[in-house]
Amino acid sequence: MNKIFIIEHLEPELYEWCIIEYRHISKIVGKNNIWFTNIRKSDIGRLIKFGKVFQESVKNMNLKNACILDPDPHIILTPKKAMNFHYFIFGGILGDYPPRKRTKQELSKFMPAVSKFNIGKVQMSTDNAVYTVKKIIEGKNLNELKFQDKAEIKINSILTTVLPFRYNLINKKPLLSPELIKFIKNRDNN
Q1: DSSP element (H, E) containing 184
Q2: Domain count, the chain
Q3: Can you state the angle between helices 16-29 and 178-188, rounded to 10 degrees?
Q4: For 16-37, how does the pLDDT look when each residue is reduced to its tens digit (9 = 90+)?
Q5: Does residue 134 lie within any of the structural domains?
Q6: Which run of H or E residues covers position 116?
Q7: Is 166 among the domain residues?
Q8: Closest Cα partner for 169 from 141, 140, 118, 132?
Q9: Is residue 36 part of a domain?
């Protein structure tokens, strides 16, 4: 049985940064394994090529065998626990620093019957959270994964931008979409 990764879009708009992360998530888990929920009708066409898109909120879907990934709960998701679930729900949030616990406030508290797990207490970008859960589903324990807190993007010879989140290390480099790096460089260099 395939696992479904659900991104409940919690931003007021579908920002370009969101689209870049959602596209990256689609590449990480595959278009057939990703759902985007809580999407405005006018934005559905912008995401349809990356996965299944719903206007409906996951809060109203009454899914069985689902869990929410939220930094707040004390229980860590393990490969053994992940076997019990078909749906893995993430808050589609452009992170705040310091974090405002938006997943808890805007998602978890509305789904009290759904199991909740963390994948560490440090906030990750949504694409890194999905990648982490994918690795856990594949049998890796959280403590077997390598992470880096903060990622620095060199804009030009003078400027850098620091992203204050936790990133998976792949070949000793933080997992960042090349498209996101380009977007940040273009945005911050102007």
Answers
A1: helix 178-188
A2: 1
A3: 170
A4: 999 999 999 999 999 999 999 9
A5: yes
A6: strand 115-117
A7: no
A8: 132
A9: yes
